[in-house]
## 1
Amino acid sequence: MKRFVPTLCIAGVLALATPIAHAIPIVYTTVLSGAAEEPPVESPGTGTATVVYDPDERTLQIQTSFSGLVGPTTVAHIHCCTGTASSGNAGVATQVPTFDGFPAGVNSGSYSNTFDLTDPASWNPAFIANNGGTAASAEMALAAGLAAAQAYLNIHTEFAPGGEIRGFLVAASSVPEPATLALLGTALLGLTIARVLRRQGGSGTSRRTGPPGVSGRAQARRRNQAL
């Protein structure tokens, strides 16, 4: 029974720890500027962008805000994948001609949308064709490009048709979610309890050399009488 209790604790810990194995969304951020364009664009425009890739849900959430653009907006995309990290130019990877619902004809604004990466309509057909021919293979290529800092978000305007401001997406520092921390704490607690019970089981075991139910003193008395 004493061995069974620690084993049961460990089994419970493993069951609780199972959700930790699930992939958590990966957050990428960037600052948009004309100086980041290649070649650089002289623009006072600035912006920020956050892109969240969820490997489990297979979605891509895009949030961006911008202001001070010289020309009114035309289209916006994520481009991938450049030959080197944080440098170079690449073709459009995401939906064309632009993000669905992206504000056009403005010099400042914001945008937020979530794309289903299993849907071919979320992709540039040329990017799919150049990366395996399916939405799944395109997703793998973009995921690799994001991880390698070879993808950038670009906002195009009438002033700069090739892009007025852009920024390479870089993974943000990940902080464990509260649920993950709770599971880790529970796992550690369970392992500690199992270790304590195992030690108690070892130290509390006494060796008997006589018949069950006969104390050590009684056994010694019988041996003396026999002598």
## 2
Amino acid sequence: MKKTFWVLFITIIPFFIIGCAIGANITGVSAVYMITSACALASLMAYCLIIKRKEPWFLVLFTSVLIVNIGYMALSLSKTIHAALMANRIAYLGSVFLPISMLMIVRKVCKIKYRTWFTALCIVIGVFVFCIAASPGLSDIYYKSVRLHISNGNGMLIKEYGPWHKLYLFYLLGGFAAMIGTVFYAIIKKPLSSALHATVLVIAVFTNLAVWLLEQFVKINFEFLSVSYIISELFLLGIYAMMQQLSIPKKQKTSPSPCEPPSEEALAFFISQIPTLTPTERSVYELYRSGKGTKEVLQALNISENTLKYHNKNIYSKLGVKSRKQLLQLAVQTENRH
């Protein structure tokens, strides 16, 4: 019931925000970005509230997609160059961590381990690229010049690229290349449990690459990556959920079987060996049988812990048991016989 409530609540969020956009007369590109932001928020909330075993990189991915879409939406609603540049920085903040999180999730799905230093290096490179991409308004190394253009109520930046702008392009290409390389390596080495998983991974990565290339060569006043990233995160989440379900039966098979009741032979041997216990061992046995714990036995017999361990070892050996639990189980069976 609780899960159903959250599913319904999260489903309503996009429609609520769309209604707000219509009520506020927000149309065109801004309205679309508002819808994608609502979907990204709903996806993040669904992951946090519904998924039990969470993967940290999925949280980074869902959060990054949300930040990217909020940045695009804020940019389209900007009325001043200062607000537009700040919105652009927000969008880049999410964008630089998207390739890293996707790469780490692809690695996880492909069951390929990376060194800790490699992950740290990716994060450092991402932070460096963000600092360069966030420099417009402070430096001309990324954009030589930039101005705000408002068309049909939607703001957009008209940019002249600087010498360091290609750094972000190489960064994205490097991220996509690493993802593709990881997937094909997993296909060749066969750590993937299903051909379907490999196919979906390839589609998810190549979809983002194709959309990004389209935006580079075709002038479109809309960031289609805002949509493709949402689709990709749902693809990746679906694969990860399937892999978790496939791992459950294996864990159940390897889990220890419940303790079986003692056999008649073991019980008969146990009863026959009780008279062989020394007086002290018999006292320890009776105290255990009456439900006393280790501390209570030590106090009752006024002995050290090492001495009790010595007596326990002798008792277990004589009675043919391996633990106190088995000892008590056989003791109960003995009482039932009498």
